[in-house]
Amino acid sequence: MVRLDIDLAFSEEETGTDAALPPFEGTITAAGSEVRVTISDPSRLPGNGRRTLAELSTVADALAARGISVRVEGPDGPILHLGEVKSSLLQRVVTGSPHIRLGSVAALAPLLTRRNGGQALTFPVPPGTPLPLVPTVNRFVPRRITTTHYTPGSGRPRLIFAVGSSSWDGSRPREFDLLPTKTVIGSGDEADLRLPGLAPVHAEIRHEGDDEYVLYGFDVVGGGGAAVEGRRGNGRILRTGARIELGDWRLAYFRAEWADHGRPYGGRVGGELARQRKQPPRGGRGPLAQASDPD
Q1: Nearest partner of 54 among 103, 6, 99, judged by Cα
Q2: Of 240, 200, 223, 228, nearest to 295 (Cα)?
Q3: Which end of the chain lies in a sparser environment, N or C, as judged by fewer CB atoms within 10 Å?
């Protein structure tokens, strides 16, 4: 699970014709997976009504996939709650997304008429149901499953890593491209990715014959979660977004989804209530020897 530690305050001074207005102020705090944004004047939110709920739903879906929620509040209470939220059937009909929950009417009132241009924040009306009520897709026509099998090693498999939040020094995360066959992680001279404080050979990621990247630990290895597809012996098959904890270091594995095997249409396990068939094993493409798909 993603953990966020945030404690920020901001203030924006108006210029020009709005210079007489008080500053637009707010705070952003988080201690876990929920981000709380508090603002002084909802009517001055960026966008001025041009950002539709359809656009917000894309952001909300991405937040929900990572288990993150963002709560936006004004002086009159909650305005929006995005991401990992519980919304009623009525809310889903109004917003068009299961990952958006609107706040109270009093809190939303300043958004209905913006000061900048008086543009209204409109809510989409659900489309009408076409008649007659017949299936639009022939369910009995066999269709080829789209796979994410591509050239072995493609999709730029890499690690993005930084020191954990308890000892973070403010430096930006760094990246390390995984090696073609095996990447050794540790503090010793034989390590390809050297991280102080770890065992000389703490873990390694092997690029195996069926183009899977598998994590093997020789010391304590944490992390994982839904982004890890499964086990292979003593190793864990990595999927894009997988979290790895080695000592005081926090690493995340990334690979472009069009090359990250596992599920049709992408390497992720799936969305809300999703049940997908697993992909067939890779064919005989590429220089690597092929093995049966562990999925």
Answers
A1: 99
A2: 228
A3: N
